[in-house]
Amino acid sequence: MAMTENVPQEVLDVLDRIIQDDSVPRNIRKTAVEIKESLLHGENTLAVRASSAISILEDIASDPNLPMHVRTLIWNVSSQLERISVDK
Prior knowledge:
Layout: H1 9-20, H2 26-41, H3 46-61, H4 68-87
Helix pairs in contact: 1-2, 1-4, 2-3, 3-4
């Protein structure tokens, strides 16, 4: 997959999955919406937006109320976003 100035569709799909999952606490779903909007419509370069998203994702991954399957999804998204930061 070529890393262009576009966010990888896999990242957006996983964020949508988190947003629509009712087992995820509301504050985490709200944060996922904010991350998605920032990635799609941020003013900075994609690498900077990805780095910012990674930082936020690391914070919410430590939430004790987060279901384990969602924590795994968050780690996967972070990993994909780290590739963007390195490639840019």
